[in-house]
Amino acid sequence: MAIGMYYLANDQFFNGQMDEVRVWNSARTEAHIRTDMCRRFATIPGNLVAYYRFDQSSGQVANDEGSVPANGSLVGFSGNPWVTSGAAIGDASVAGYPSAGINVARMWLFAANRDSAVVTNVNAQNKGIHLYAVNSTPQVSPGTGTAPSYFGVFSVPATSSYTVRLSPESGTVPASGLYTRTANDALAWNTTSPTVTASTLVLDNQTYRNEYIMTGRTLATASAQLSAQVSVYPNPAHRTVWVQLPASASQQSVVTIYNTLGQQLLTQKLIDSRAAQQLPLPALAKGVYTVRIALAEGTVTKRLVIE
User: What is the CATH class of 224-306?
Assistant: First the structure.
């Protein structure tokens, strides 16, 4: 299989950029494409046989993360022509398409850390709009106390306008700023002047593509030393998982599990934090989850894989 080259016509090569190349062994409907186009796959579907994310920044090998992986060789890739991706891709996303009857009047999405974004006031020109969340800090940070996640909106046509509202996990706005950029390849963030309410930061008259992040937060995270002493096992897990805290940890703690959409799936208080506690994982599908353990000393976050 050759991608980006027409070998029957004197090896003509594609002149442009590629990212998130996916090869399926079954037909994709319009609804499938719209649902998945602005999100990565944490759990690889069986019919996604080849998945080239192109997340590396050097080398001449295209890593395949599909269900039937076969790494590719990058031909004519002399030097180091890798560039930062500007694709509108997140870890979770929602979409609205008026022509398909998919509501765009109000779209909302949680990030893994429970920050949220809401898109409203989408004007009548809109043909389609995606809201996505990236559950990691950006490559370039806009300031002190940057949120551990950020959001993006991809709307067409470019003249279509909308309003975006961001709310921090706490429900009150401790943020000193809301920054924006067009996409990840823009790197630098720009200051904004949002309308500030008790719980949201609001930007009106947004158009086409933008990414948004809050700053100025003081996060009650546990120390690196304490976090390293917290164990979540087995990992990958199946029907149950155990949480082990160090003896020095406070005896009052709460464990919460979130999916990649930031939805809270399970919460349990640990009766005796000094002993390993067993958590049942009823009806949780295979995939990647976030485990947050709230202690008096701060919050510990762990990544959990369920198989």
Answer: mainly beta
pLDDT in tens, 80-91: 788 888 999 999
Q: Across residues 128-132, what is the average pLDDT?
A: 95
**Amino acid at the residue 111:** A
- Assess whether pLDDT exceeds 80 at residue 260: no
Q: Count the helices and strands in the chain (H runs, E runs).
A: 2, 24
Q: Domain coordinates of the chain in residue numbers?
A: 1-83, 92-215, 224-306
The closest alpha carbon to 118, from 136, 135, 105, 128, belongs to 105
Helix (H, G, I), strand (E, B) or coil at 80: coil
CATH topology of domain 92-215: Immunoglobulin-like (2.60.40)
Same fold, 92-215 and 224-306: yes
User: For 22-29, which contacts have Cβ atoms below 8 Å and span 24 or more sequence positions?
Assistant: 22/48, 22/50, 22/51, 22/52, 22/66, 23/48, 23/49, 23/50, 23/51, 23/66, 24/48, 24/49, 25/49
Q: How confident is the model over 245-254, as pLDDT tens digits?
A: 887 766 667 7
Q: Is residue 86 within 8 Å of residue 183, measured between CB atoms?
A: yes
Please name the amino acid found at residue 97: Y
Could you please report the per-residue DSSP string of 150-207?
EEEEEEESTT-EEEEEEE-TTSS---SEEEEESSGGG-S-EE---EE-SS-EEEEEEE
